[in-house]
Amino acid sequence: MGLLQSVTRASAIDCVVDEKVTFIVQPGQMGLAIGRGGENIRKMEHLLKKQVDVAEYADNFKDFAMNLAVPAEPKSISKDNGRLVIIADSRSRYLLKSDNGKILKRMKLFLERHYGEITKVEVK
To answer: Domain containing 119: what range?
Structure first.
């Protein structure tokens, strides 16, 4: 996470490394993290030799979940008794579920770290 700050001047508050590196940055710092024309993302990808994604943290569950869902654009996201319920059009459902549901898995991981356990994920 220190590398992100030294390259971009954006403060990361969380990070997951798997087949790609996903950073969660402080609210209002997405522009710094991405850089002009994606310049900072490209630098990070070159240094880490992995694809880099960045999402912006939000102080409330719904906004944070929506930020994690990008590039999908769900109509609504809610958490009810440990269930994550995502309502989306067909394009967004496809994006969320494609590539073995990697976006959904990453969403679940970050949301659990910051907002408590999620027992089930439903996409409608």
So the answer is: 61-123
